Amino acid sequence: MQISRLRFGVPVVLLAAFAALGPPPAPVAAQAAGGGTLLVAEPFTGAAADPRFQGFGSACLTGAPAAGGLGDGLHPLAACGADRVGPVPPAGGAPFGFLELTDAANDQAGAVLFDQALPAVEGLEVTFDQYQYGSTTPDAPADGISFFLVDGAGGLSAPGAFGGSLGYAQKEPGFTADPPFIPGVDNGYLGIGLDVLGNYFGDWERRGDGCATPSPSGTAFYVPAPGENMVTVRGPGDGTEGYCFLTATTDNLTSTGPWNSTLPGELHGPLTALPPGADAEEAAALLEPSKRTVTVRISPAPAPHVTVDVDFHDGAGPVQVIDFPAPEPVPETYKFGFAASTGLFTDVHLIGGLTVRSERPLPMLELVKEAGAERAYAPGETVEYTYTLRNTTGVTVPDVAVVDDRIADLDCEATTLAPAGAEGDTVTCTGAYPVTDADAEAGEVTNTAEATGDGGRVVSNAASVTVAVAPGGEPGEPGEEPGLAETGPSPAAAALLALALAAAGLALLRSTRRAA
């Protein structure tokens, strides 16, 4: 039995439709126009979310019915508390829910962490909706929301420091006699700050400690903060070292302020209140003007670049607001998270509509192909093939199909794969191939199969099998190699020759003894 087998162990969430297949061409890695492989798709609208997300602090799902307190540390992403502050979406709001990082109470800190490595080799595209609004201190809204990436080789069990560090960078809190130095997120790679208040821009509180190049505003404390309404980016860091300022949406990167934002709109939304008794659907509609859709892209190596687009939903569409070289070295895998907090100043911070995909397609399905028996076939016989396709992703893969370069019609028991490890994560297909005279002349038949899904964005490994074909139209026995043409003497003639040689040798031996 000959099996071609490769493993690609990358979990993902896949939602899409696969176009109908015509007659099978030679297999190639299918790709949908303008898109890579969908790795995560979580709208956060329901009463539950992808279990690979973990909440931290005040992070919760407004789609779930209200529950008790969440505590300060890591917890399963679940319901929000019953006593929330500000114009928050009502609890139990599925299917019109959101990921709530904080309500508008003082001194809240919330994050959501995706502690599962995603491949970096083909680039990354992350799109999400963010909502910052509803401050109870409207003259000075809260800090902002961060999206951050860490090196996937390490763990991700807690965010970094909050406040102006936005859950990514380190921080030595000011205004106290002997403040503790709070580390940034472990194995940090890139922190994108959607910085409403503006402190993430500066190195006050020892952000960027140990960096050769400081923030343009340095370590001074500013009122108002130096980088309000900016997208600010900080680079790799671990513990209390690094998280250096990289760039920001400003037309002034010198050390002399002011530092004016070049964003064409406001990150902070206009909603200040919800009508009494508004249900979840009404709240979602009223939140639309406060929605800002953000897309972060990291191009594939070599020399990857990072771009950030923001759609302010003002009719202008997505606008690229920043473009810079990705920090080197680029990790082999990423993990990611979101964070936000309140302090003396407050806001409601929400996330929705999250998708994560590679920039170019990735193989995410495992295909194993087998022939019916290990034997030599003859022309006119049929080779029976079995194709076993397994989902290696974290959630359902719909509309998968297997294509073989020699067999037009394959029969599959199902076209949807359950998440890896669940019942139904494997599907079996069968196909038959009639052996021809041309195959007998070639002495073998090799055919190759490949599986696709998600509109061609998901591909499997290529699986090939070679079977022997006996010449002369005679099938071989199981396990028997095809016969070879006889080019030497027959067995009988060989035996007679051996006897003659033995007799001649014996006669020569006797003659030699007499002569002695």
Write the layout of secondary structure elements.
Blueprint: E1 38-42, E2 53-57, E3 60-61, E4 74-76, E5 99-102, E6 109-119, E7 124-133, E8 144-151, E9 188-195, E10 230-234, E11 237-238, E12 241-242, E13 245-248, H1 280-287, E14 291-298, E15 305-311, E16 319-325, E17 333-341, E18 348-357, E19 362-371, E20 376-377, E21 382-391, E22 401-404, E23 411-412, E24 426-434, H2 437-442, E25 444-453, E26 458-460, E27 463-469, H3 491-515
Parallel strand pairs: 19-26, 20-27
Antiparallel strand pairs: 1-18, 2-4, 2-6, 3-5, 5-18, 6-17, 7-14, 7-18, 8-9, 8-17, 9-10, 10-13, 11-12, 14-15, 15-16, 19-21, 21-24, 22-25, 23-24, 25-26, 25-27
Organism: Glycomyces paridis
Domain DUF7507: 363-454
InterPro entries: ConA-like_dom_sf (IPR013320), DUF7507 (IPR055354)
